[in-house]
Specification:
Length: 448
């Protein structure tokens, strides 16, 4: 999810927005700063135009931004969450990282490295690896470590961040009937996010459609969350399962039509309002019933005792989290976090399958039969023959196009996929011999 103060990290170089530090939260994008637009009252036509105009920006493909989340672990007390103040004190004393990443925090104490854009995926991975090494050293000095896996395998979901925004989000989730999934999403999951430029206008429909179509196949390939709350879940990607249990009007995929910017605007206006921000302060009040933004604009309901402004609409957009989110560029948000060498391989595969024309063509043909298999991918993954066939074809296409610096990682992933396995299988093997505590500790890579 996203920071509370307008930080925009991991974005392609063409993104003109500035960035600043702030807490982050997987699944929700950066919270737009309150600007002079907050007093401009909208009608439906203006609201749709406002969203569509910022959805995608034309330009060449190439730049890549990466964001990697991980569960923070106290090596001396792995079953306990690290207290918020201890986390804040550590992050506040970190030096500037060599690759330019910002370190931000999630409500459950997850730590995220959000890298700046780089010219290609190899450079983006190299920079994030360098930053990860510095962060790991700082954590080790405090007997802490970070475990990049899709779901916390040991500790039950629980919020440690006291920020009012996240307390209000919990209240909204509870009111609309998905309290458990909402808390799990905020505090017990971790993702790898790949951010890519939108490309030339003429290709937007095809590019956005392919980014979604790849989703189920790459969910199966990346699956690295077979345990949660101390036990196997029966799903290869518990993280994706959690997303499926949230309001699909807020986090379901777009339909992939001919006008992706217009479709995003329609999606945003139809989505229920989660929070109403105090325009004169930093607070946020939860909305405890289903009210679409369009209903608020049309005057059918008054939230916060007023009509919505453009600032309210910008804030609303930060609470929408489809698996591919247009933010001028494309946020690819459906990959589980995974340890080395899998996250670099997943970043490379995702990038080349969208950016390399030949690889994209092969991927489009291979994944079409399983384009809607989101739940099947999260439950059984590559055990499904159709998903396995699509994954093998995608990895073959990626191996032919991936930068040489990342070919060993991608070839290792291709070999794993050929055998019908995913990164999470190693976690299950560890759980059988050492239990969920061993899983969490082993995922950190720290010496035991």
């Amino acid at each position: 999810m996203g920071p509370e103060d307008g930080r925009t990290t991991g974005r392609p170089r063409t993104d003109p927005r500035s960035s600043s530090t702030g807490p982050d939260l997987e699944g929700v994008g950066p919270v737009a700063p309150v600007t002079e637009q907050r007093t401009v009252v909208l009608d439906l036509e203006a609201a749709a135009a406002h969203v569509a105009s910022a959805a995608l920006r034309p330009g060449p493909v190439g730049p890549v931004g990466l964001e990697l989340e991980a569960h923070l672990v106290d090596l001396d007390a792995p079953a306990s969450r690290v207290p918020w103040q201890r986390i804040r004190d550590l992050v506040d004393t970190l030096p500037a990282l060599p690759g330019g990443s910002r370190v931000t925090l999630e409500p459950g104490g997850q730590v995220e490295l959000s890298g700046p854009p780089y010219p290609d995926v190899a450079a983006a991975v190299a920079a994030l690896r360098a930053d990860r090494d510095v962060l790991a050293g700082a954590l080790a000095a405090e007997r802490l470590a970070a475990a990049p896996v899709g779901a916390d395998p040991l500790r039950p979901p629980a919020r440690v961040c006291p920020a009012p925004r996240y307390a209000a989000m919990e209240e909204h989730f509870a009111a609309v009937g998905c309290a458990e999934a909402g808390t799990a999403m905020m505090t017990g999951t971790a993702a790898l996010q790949v951010n890519l430029d939108a490309g030339p206008c003429a290709g937007w429909s095809e590019r956005v459609s392919l980014a979604h179509q790849l989703g189920p196949t790459l969910v199966a390939v990346a699956a690295c969350s077979p345990l949660a709350d101390g036990r196997p879940t029966g799903w290869v990607s518990h993280r994706q399962r959690v997303w499926s249990e949230l309001d699909q009007a807020r986090c379901g995929p777009l339909l992939g039509g001919a006008d992706p910017a217009g479709e995003w605007a329609a999606y945003a206006l139809a989505a229920p309002v989660m929070l109403v921000r105090d325009p004169d302060g930093g607070g946020a009040a939860p909305v405890r019933e289903r009210v679409s933004f369009a209903e608020w604009v049309a005057g059918e309901v008054r939230l916060g005792g007023r009509a919505p402004s453009a600032g309210d609409l910008d804030y609303h957009l930060t609470t929408l989290f489809p698996p591919v989110r247009p933010r001028g560029y494309l946020e690819i948000r459906y990959l589980d976090a995974a340890p080395e060498p899998w996250w670099p391989a997943l970043a490379a595969v995702t990038t080349v399958l969208l950016d390399d024309p030949v690889a994209a063509g092969h991927a489009a043909a291979a994944t079409l039969p399983v384009a809607a298999a989101w739940d099947r991918a999260a439950r059984v993954g590559l055990a499904d023959p159709a998903l396995h066939a699509a994954a093998r074809a995608c990895l073959a296409a990626a191996c032919a196009a991936v930068p040489a610096a990342l070919r060993p990682e991608v070839e290792a992933l291709a070999d794993l996929v050929d055998r019908g396995h995913c990164p999470g299988d190693a976690l299950l093997d560890t759980a059988r011999t050492g239990g969920p505590t061993a899983v969490l500790l082993s995922a950190t890579g720290a010496p035991q």
